[in-house]
Design a protein that fits this description.
By secondary structure, the chain is of the alpha+beta class. The protein contains two helices and four strands; from the N terminus they run ββααββ. Strands 1-4 form a two-stranded antiparallel sheet. It has a two-stranded antiparallel sheet with strand order 2-3. The protein is globular, with a radius of gyration of 18 Å.
Length: about 130
């Protein structure tokens, strides 16, 4: 049986990454709010709305650049769920050179990442 390409991208066994990941659906009542962060909901929704607006503008610019109607992409995603997944790391349990976040796949049509502030961020296509 053949493995999908993303399961055989590396000969090494996966390492459990030590991160906390809070998946957040923008403006949803189903979200879980960590008790340690009393203004988590406000921060996630305000940050998420700004990120969403930025991503939609980039989608419109991309469509225009490809000679498509301005709303070619945005009309397909504007009413969908917008997920945020900030990563938390307990640096007290870390050390220089330790892997902080391992391989993951993005789940949406468009993905926006903040700037990598640390060396070693790599991205691979499904084709290797």
């Amino acid at each position: 049986m053949l493995k999908p390409p993303y399961l055989s991208m590396t000969p090494f066994s996966p390492i459990k990454d030590p991160t906390w990941r809070f998946f957040w659906i923008l403006n949803s009542h189903k979200n879980i709010i960590p008790s340690e962060f009393p203004d988590f909901s406000y921060k996630m929704n305000s940050w998420g709305q700004n990120l969403k607006n930025c991503t939609l503008v980039i989608a419109e610019m991309t469509a225009l650049g490809l000679g498509l109607p301005k709303d070619a992409f945005t009309k397909k995603i504007v009413n969908g769920d917008f997920y945020l997944s900030p990563t938390g790391i307990d640096l007290r349990k870390s050390y220089p050179g330790k892997l902080l976040t391992s391989f993951h796949r993005d789940i949406g049509l468009l993905t926006a990442h903040s700037k990598s502030r640390y060396p070693g961020l790599y991205a691979w296509l499904n084709t290797g």
